[in-house]
Amino acid sequence: MFAGDVCGSPRTTRSGRCATRHRCAAGRNQLRNTEVRADMTTIGLIGSGNIGSTVARLAVAAGHDVVLSNSRGPQTLQDLVSELGPKARAATPAEAAAAGDIVVVTVPLRAYRDVPAEPLAGKVVIDTNNYYPQRDGVFDELEDGSSTTGELLQKHLSEARVVKGFNNIWSEHLASLARPAGSADRSALPIAGDDAAAKQAVTEFFDSLGFDTVDAGPLAENWRAQRDTPVYVRPYGAYGVLPGTPASAQVVREALAAAKPAVA
Fold it and tell me: Which of 43, 105, 197, 205 has the fewest CB atoms within 10 Å, i.e. is most exposed?
């Protein structure tokens, strides 16, 4: 059972990993053509908490259709669906997975194994998960740096194409900092993934929502954007303080570069 993940709640321990580790998955998970124009996509959401509902609002505003789900059933999402209007509907997680051209998995890390794998085969999946041992329990492979959160989801969704994203920004800043393309004060978000075409699809999707992207490398490098790293929350302003501070691609790039591997 799961509910939406929340980004921006500071914790005191973190896991990291060697920056040189690179387990490339080039050429895998090409089961079907999922290259879609960003302005023609349906966005499936598995988890509709703070990040999920914010992404849904931005997606509808950008012209996407959205299919929302959570662990408590479609009936619990009717207020949000009514707010979003005719481009949104509620469904089960499996239905949202099947309907989405791009699917956002935004659940507490402890629940990642509950994400339905079969309907996500071949699809682009955005992973927003963060690791909070106090909430999720201890994951040894994250504590010792032998894996990352994105790699855990990719292993579970072995036939999907996972891209890490949306995990380093407070949901309220995600809502407040969206800007049209070309704006001088446009913010950027980091992504990481093993599939170049999937990262391109996510880049186009983020662009439609109002954000530039910075490619942090393969999933093995997504530790650079995990909680307590320089790019986590702080570039966009203080947690809990609105409207936030725009963070350019250069600011995000420098913050990613400044991250240091650490073991909890």
Answer: 197
